[in-house]
Design a protein that fits this description.
The protein is α+β, with helices and mostly antiparallel strands. Helix content is about 20%, strand content about 40%. It has a 6-stranded mixed sheet with strand order 2-11-10-5-6-7, with no helix packed on it. It has a 5-stranded mixed sheet with strand order 13-20-19-15-16. Strands 12-14-18-17 form a 4-stranded antiparallel sheet, with no helix packed on it. A hairpin with a 4-residue loop joins strand 5 and strand 6. The N and C termini lie far apart (about 75 Å).
């Protein structure tokens, strides 16, 4: 008797056994990434089949705060609500007028036994960096006496697992310095609450100079890209960062050893001839 025949036989002998085994709640969506521009609305999907008398909860992973449970909203921020059309399996988390700090991991949970969870990553992009007219205005507004640059070469090559440190110098002789120095990877602003985690930001100010520092720990190939610093007084500077994986480095070393071995053999042959 094969497994299918055995299951059918047991279901006949024990009524309700098969339905109990099948009817537990489960997610109909795969984990997803949602990317929106700052200021727009974000919709984080979650579809749960066979929910029964269980409830669906949305929470923020970084602080473990419950946002919604069922149709109730527990967050004091009125930008959050859950969308659950009648007679559907959809439990969508709606975030109105997204802000840079909204980015990060969220979890849709079902209080089954055992509890099941599905992570959703929200990425909030600075909409202004997508607008070429805004970028032109920002750069044009920079005072002629303000200079912005990032120390070091414009192309950086790093090994996976190391730490990235960037220093942005803003020289503002005889004019007021910036109140804020913002860092970006592409169009995504980097903050302490960024989904990546492991981000440190520092700012030092004097009457003639402002120094902004960005530090990323334990970099991976996903950290590759164009990094820029932008003081709120205008102007910007950027560098390109390339993170090589450990597999790539191993291949390079292996090729290098192979080449060295070949060269060594060639030199030995030449010596004896």
């Amino acid at each position: 008797m094969n497994t299918l025949q055995l299951s059918f036989f047991v279901s006949l002998m024990i009524p309700g056994w098969c339905s109990t085994w099948v009817d537990g709640p489960y997610f109909m969506d795969s984990p997803v990434n949602v990317t929106v521009n700052e200021g727009s609305h974000a919709f984080l999907p979650c579809r749960v089949a066979n929910l029964g008398d269980r409830s669906v909860t949305w929470m923020r992973r970084k602080n473990l705060h419950i946002i919604t449970a069922g149709m109730l909203t527990y967050s004091p921020d009125d930008r959050y609500r859950v969308l659950h059309p009648s007679n559907t399996d959809e439990w969508t988390l709606h975030i109105k007028f997204t802000q840079a700090g909204d980015g990060g991991w969220y979890e849709c949970q079902v209080n089954s036994d055992p509890k099941i969870t599905m992570p959703v990553l929200l990425v909030v992009k600075d909409k202004n960096l997508e607008d070429p007219f805004y970028k032109h205005e920002l750069d044009a507004d920079a005072n002629n006496n303000t200079q912005v640059n990032i120390e070091g070469p414009e192309e950086r090559y790093m090994q996976q697992g190391s730490s990235l440190s960037l220093t942005c110098n803003i020289v503002h002789n005889y004019v007021k310095g910036p109140n804020q120095v913002r860092w970006y990877q592409g169009a995504v602003r980097l903050t302490y609450d960024s989904p990546r985690g492991g981000i440190a930001l520092q700012t030092e100010k004097t009457s003639k100079r402002t120094i902004g520092r960005l530090m990323l720990s334990n970099v991976t190939p996903q950290d590759s890209g164009r990094y820029s610093c932008r003081p709120d007084t205008g102007g910007s500077a950027s560098v390109s960062v390339h993170i090589q994986s450990s597999q790539h480095q191993a291949a390079v070393q292996q090729n290098g050893q192979s080449d060295a071995s070949v060269n060594a053999k060639q030199h030995v042959v030449f010596f004896f001839l």
